Amino acid sequence: MKKNNLLLAAFLLLSLSSFAQKIEDLISEKEVARIEKILSSDEMEGRRTFTKGIDKAAAFIADEFKKTGLQTWNNSGSYLQQFAMVRPKFISVTASIDGISVDSRDVIVMTCQPEIKVTEQSGYEKITIGKGANLVTEARKLMTANKNYFVLVDTSHARAMGTLTRMKSNLFKTDKNLVFMLATTDPKTYSIESKHEVTEMPLANVVGVLPGKSKKNEYVIFSGHYDHLGIMGKDRNGNVQTDSIFNGANDDAAGTTAMMVLAQYFKAINNNERTLIFVAFTAEEVGGYGSTYFSRQFNPEQVMAMFNIEMIGSESKWGKNSAFITGYEKTDMGKILQSNLAGTDFTFYPDPYPAQQLFYRSDNATLARLGVPAHTISTTKIDVDPYYHKASDEFNTIDVDNMTRIIRAIALSSRGIVSGKDTPTRVNTSDLR
């Protein structure tokens, strides 16, 4: 019996060694450096949202997806997932219920149209948000429902109405409208007229798909955000910059590079039972709009896991061969990843910076709030990072060797989830803010 156990152990060790050799060939330091260097080059002009620089970056990522052999999302024929943000500038609103005028401060209209008029005959679904409900949470649900609503809000929420005003400052383009009104009664008749100056701003995520073999409708997402801060005259401390291009080599060309190299790897080994989705998010730095729009394209129950990769271009506080996972305690995904790394010298740790609230500060947050085991993998010492949001975040600061090791570790650790063997527990949404 002991002899058989020794033979089995030797076989497993040999298999791991062979697999490690294969992954080193498929995920090479040279390829990691090539992609990272292009994304963080001056040619991309810092990849600021709504600039030519970010358009160049999107075109480069899409071309790489094509070379890798990924499919387009929903067979659209384009790797660009295009959408628009609409910024409605308030001009005026008049309102009445049962013939009595309502103070304009008690009415919030969320619309992408310059002018609208809503009455009880407009066909809007009328609902009530009562005392004790979470106004912001309920408003977010309504904003994703793709319906016209007239919403009566209990007056106990008067102070929270200001939050709705901030939420309406950037909307996804839609022909649906939401009207919120503070009210003590359920009116039989009502009339609301609003005027806004509407500015439309086009955006695009870059999405590639590797269909699953036996579990096509179960999705595993690998992501990174490809936008950064662009060209700026001063840093966040107000200091004048000699170098005005904020290249964002670590934030987050590093995560985007990792996602692209992982796409190459999984396409090469071609054994994914679940469908893999590779996405470069836009507009993370200005509000997470890319990931928010992206998350609305899914039934969250079909998303088995999300590997969001952010700032892995430096050693973690534990040194090489290590990284941390935000929200580690919220699912068992971290434990699954570590178990798949048995026999290696790589370790995933829980987030050591809980005060920074990193779980809520990256593109994993939108899907996590829907219950998806969606976590960010990072190494940055966020409390002391000397390059964070500075012009000095350039390619020459990246530890490409260590970054390559991290990408290999993500590939190895995700095997069970990609194959359908492992399924992480869901995030308890009642614990999320």
TrEMBL record:
- Stored Gene3D superfamilies: Zn peptidases (3.40.630.10)
Q: What are the protein's UniProt keywords?
A: Signal
* Nucleotide-binding among keywords: no
According to the entry, every stretch annotated as the Peptidase M28 domain falls at 205-411
List GO BP terms, alphabetically.
proteolysis
The protein's GO terms of the molecular function aspect are:
metalloexopeptidase activity
The residue range of the signal peptide is 1-20
Name this polypeptide is given: Peptidase M28 domain-containing protein
Recorded source organism is Sediminibacterium sp. KACHI17
